[in-house]
Amino acid sequence: MSGSGAPQPPPTEADSPAVKGDSPANDSSDVRQLLGIKGASESTSKWRIRLQLMKPVTWVPLIWGVTCGAAASGNFHWNDPVDIEKSLACMFLAGPLLTGYTQVINDWYDREIDAINEPYRPIPAGLVTENEVKTQIGVLLAAGLALAAGLDVWAAHEWPVNFTLTVFGVFVAYIYSAPPLKLKQNGWTGSYALGASYISLPWWAGQALFGTLDWKTMVLTLFYSFAGLGIAIINDFKSVEGDRATGMQSLPVMFGIDTAKWICVGMIDIFQLLVAGILFGVGEKGYAAAIVALVAPQMFLQQKYFLKDPVKYDVKYQASAQPFLVIGILVAGLAVGHHGPL
């Protein structure tokens, strides 16, 4: 498994390591280069290469998670400029800084497997040096820690909760990618670390910035992290060849594609329904019904695409089904904000 759990856009005719000229195909590959996704054009511009390493396409789930956490606090005011400024700062922390740090460090430690699975990436393609990569990692880390500390001061926290969450997230990102632990070598621990980092941590950061975290809400978000584990597994199907060659124990490698695809959809569906059950149990029946309604099209699309051929239809399934899951996360955040402490 390489990169992150974010869905990748469907391939186009521009899906080659380098595309020349001023054609629409080249315009598409230039955008893909900036987003850090497959089909990227080759560039010698250092700032474009550094941006590609940070994979901007993967920032979106973290930014969304901060929004959900702010909603769950019950104290975020959508028309308050100060609240908006705080949320944007937290989104910048979660997205460009910390997710960017995670992606760069992941690419560095994945350079050998990327040479098989994604040879167009800047490191295996030789477009960036070791010193440049390490400098970028250090700058993103330092900026992230500084901004997290500043958010705690801005929110007048007695205890530096956002800084603590940032340190924990940085630690998880490191042991996910780097030896000797390299959590991603094991399909269960790696996929769950990814799911929790993309759903729970940004939610906690957003909620802590505007309100108070309680353990029950944290458990609720961890259920969504198990659903995120299922999403993370989807990205392993396309990397089976490289994972096997390098000894990476992703779930498709461990269990085979047919079994892993059922584990994947089971995690996605069951834990969303558990969240709906919890909300129903605390009296938020309308929000619970909304989440159930959002799970239904996901199950339909699983049957239509993913379960038929998870390798062929992984991108199409994610592009069509994942919006229902992320909307459901916001619904859960709004339910917590409406209800108060669970």
From TrEMBL:
Region of interest called Disordered, as start-end residue ranges on this chain: 1-31
Highest rank taxon of the organism: Eukaryota
GO molecular function: chlorophyll synthetase activity
Compartments in which it is found: Membrane
Residues that span the membrane, as ranges: 137-155, 161-177, 189-206, 218-238, 319-337
Protein name as it appears in the record: Chlorophyll a synthase
Cited PANTHER family: CHLOROPHYLL SYNTHASE, CHLOROPHYLL SYNTHASE, CHLOROPLASTIC
GO biological process: chlorophyll biosynthetic process
GO cellular component, one term: membrane
Record keyword Protein transport present: no
Pfam families, alphabetized: UbiA
Membrane topology: Multi-pass membrane protein
Biological source species: Chondrus crispus (Carrageen Irish moss)
Keywords on record: Chlorophyll biosynthesis, Membrane, Transmembrane, Transmembrane helix
